[in-house]
């Protein structure tokens, strides 16, 4: 009689209720046994007849599973002898578990310095529920929704698609150039526009083109956390420049001249998180500093479409005569964040460098979303849409400010912002530790973002960010009542500690 190996005792687990075919399940169980070393190299698998008796499966199913193993190199079929586990498999496959993860006695997995830093100080970007006072919500009226649906239906042609330009759809780039030229005073044409997956990818692309590890970047202090992390993860040396009620204090830039900064990152139209707008005199000082030090300026104009009082100040890029400003914008706030369409506009002499690096991030931006937005802009729907959205957000802003001043004036100092889709509230002195309060409010069911973690080196201040875009009257009413309860709970916690 032919001797049987230890593999004959192997009993695979099969779920007959699973939608996965039984032959496929058996193949996966056998493959796992080979990879884990449960069935050793060179051992003979049970004959289909014996396996059928032991495993209570048809011989045809078992033969199919064995053929899959042989086809992928996990087993070898020997005519007249049977099926054997392959020998010579890599040690990782034959002697150890193929599952990733740290186990006792296992060597530490090597990861990059960038990944290690990201794990050390992760960016908190949870999928926030649509509740008060989450930031970045976009809720369209019926007219805009129907327009987008109609335009989208034109471009669902799965049989007619292919690889596109890494720089982005030509029609969308032309529409973006026309839009920012008219609305923001940006000086550019379509050849200078690069379409990206939101503003964050635009920031990352710009860093990769303009900075080398060890270079210095000057950031507003406090600043937008994901931008700061992008610089840090790319090996930049971060220096904070203070912010006051008029934005970046440009007079302090001379103190950092000795560090030969490569880049200054600013949000001049609506400073994040404080909400101030950089006045013309400081814009000119900033441009002069960039000219004298030969550094680049990244202008993040993330929500410039939403100004409620007075006329918007022209973009920094539009004032730049030295071609040292890189302009970043996004449609996440003005159309839909889920479309993931942003853009970066670069000086003409930087186009070749951006064109060389852009395909390294992804081959090309998604065509479908670009075509939808291009038609929406090119057919003239965007200005009217923005007017409706602006009025809706203005009403939400005024409603929220009134409720906060009426119900929470003992705890919060609130002023209506002239621009943007969020407001920043300061402490009256009755509470401290905005991070602790944010956690308390979250437990009550409302979202407020603490500002203190956004500081770099300046003295921290306890402030809270509340979004109001897409905020309904009911949400504002319930949300502010919950904030009142949160302050009460937070006060009790502070006393107990």
UniProtKB/TrEMBL annotation:
<dbReference type="InterPro" id="IPR051446">
    <property type="entry name" value="HTH_trans_reg/aminotransferase"/>
</dbReference>
<dbReference type="InterPro" id="IPR000524">
    <property type="entry name" value="Tscrpt_reg_HTH_GntR"/>
</dbReference>
<dbReference type="InterPro" id="IPR015421">
    <property type="entry name" value="PyrdxlP-dep_Trfase_major"/>
</dbReference>
<comment type="similarity">
    <text>In the C-terminal section; belongs to the class-I pyridoxal-phosphate-dependent aminotransferase family.</text>
</comment>
<dbReference type="Pfam" id="PF00392">
    <property type="entry name" value="GntR"/>
</dbReference>
<keyword id="KW-0663">Pyridoxal phosphate</keyword>
<dbReference type="Pfam" id="PF00155">
    <property type="entry name" value="Aminotran_1_2"/>
</dbReference>
<keyword id="KW-0238">DNA-binding</keyword>
<keyword id="KW-0805">Transcription regulation</keyword>
<keyword id="KW-0804">Transcription</keyword>
<protein>
    <submittedName>
        <fullName>PLP-dependent aminotransferase family protein</fullName>
    </submittedName>
</protein>
<dbReference type="InterPro" id="IPR004839">
    <property type="entry name" value="Aminotransferase_I/II_large"/>
</dbReference>
<dbReference type="GO" id="GO:0008483">
    <property type="term" value="F:transaminase activity"/>
</dbReference>
<dbReference type="InterPro" id="IPR015424">
    <property type="entry name" value="PyrdxlP-dep_Trfase"/>
</dbReference>
<feature type="domain" description="HTH gntR-type">
    <location>
        <begin position="20"/>
        <end position="88"/>
    </location>
</feature>
<keyword id="KW-0032">Aminotransferase</keyword>
<dbReference type="InterPro" id="IPR036388">
    <property type="entry name" value="WH-like_DNA-bd_sf"/>
</dbReference>
<keyword id="KW-0808">Transferase</keyword>
<dbReference type="InterPro" id="IPR036390">
    <property type="entry name" value="WH_DNA-bd_sf"/>
</dbReference>
